[in-house]
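Protocol step 4 of 5: obtain the predicted structure for the target chain.
Materials: sequence only (see below). No template structures provided, no constraints applied. The aim of this step is simply to have a reference model before the mutagenesis design in step 5. Sequence pasted as it appears in the construct record:
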Amino acid sequence: MLMVQDVDLTPNPQALKFILNERLLNYETRQFGSKAEAENDPLAKGIFELEGVVSVFYMDKFITIEKAKDANWGQIQRPFINFLKSFDKNLIPVEKEVKPTSEDESKLLKQINEILDQRVRPALAGDGGGLQVLGIDGYTVKIHYQGACGSCPSAISGTLMAIEGLLKRDVNPAIEVIAG
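Step 4 output (structure tokens):
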């Protein structure tokens, strides 16, 4: 039975990170910004049924829920915990097989992802969020924040500059990071 073991605050005042007793995913992260996006994911779809939920992000052993500004956690938390208790984890869509990166993936992109995996993604996961590299064009890296980070003011400015500074220092001084 899925159960919430702990609840963490996130830097985003509208998001909470719910730490679970069981692993949901081994490799992937899943982000849903609307009920329509969650249509084919029974876990996220069920969470969106709760009044006031505006986004759902989950990976590993946690789920981050962002609420509408005018909603209160009291109307979300108890129904969420009850939903989890009755939810069959086997309904979560199977993860896509993770294949080794192809040989044509650029050396630069590999370097960037290695640094993000080591230095940035664990910190973001600690705050209930994630980061996806959408692509690279020359030395411009386009990223997308997930979970609590998606609409957090500090992610949009401070974290973006910190990631750019880290990549400029450790990979190439010409790198520019933009949010997509």
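Step 4 remarks: The chain has two domains: 4-91, 107-179. The longest helix spans residues 107-126.
Proceed to step 5.
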